[in-house]
Protein: Putative redox protein
Organism: Lutibacter maritimus
Amino acid sequence: MTNKIEVSWKGQMLFESVAPEGNVMIDAAPEVGGQGKGLRPKAMMLTALAGCSAMDIASLLKKMRAEVDDFKIEVEANLTEEHPKIYDKVKVTFRFYGKDFKKDKIEKAVNLSEERYCGVMEMFRKFSEVTTEIVYVEK
């Protein structure tokens, strides 16, 4: 299967990415001529990583009947100093909110996403050291 997007210049450093599923704006920081009207490309990469895992986990928790009140995924990444600047270390924190957590099922869902389903995480592992953590927040 082939995925295809098209990026169109909208002036200055603003671009629009158009995919079959929707559009997203891309922009640069003001100090390099951007206007802050969209995500920066590297932030989009981190968003793709969190989004990929989030969708896996939401689906798996529902199938496993291990629903939580809410969950959030935080991604922190270290950007190298030299050009081309890349993320060499990435930490993904999965935060689950609720009570009476079915921790075994939640951990299984996270592990399945990390190890089997999330292709974006597998791509990140090709160039970064990826670590993960699960945090439970009692409500």
The helical segments are 41-64, 103-117, 119-125. Residues 92 and 132 are 5 Å apart (CA to CA). The chain has a mean pLDDT of 97. The chain has two domains: 1-39, 41-138.
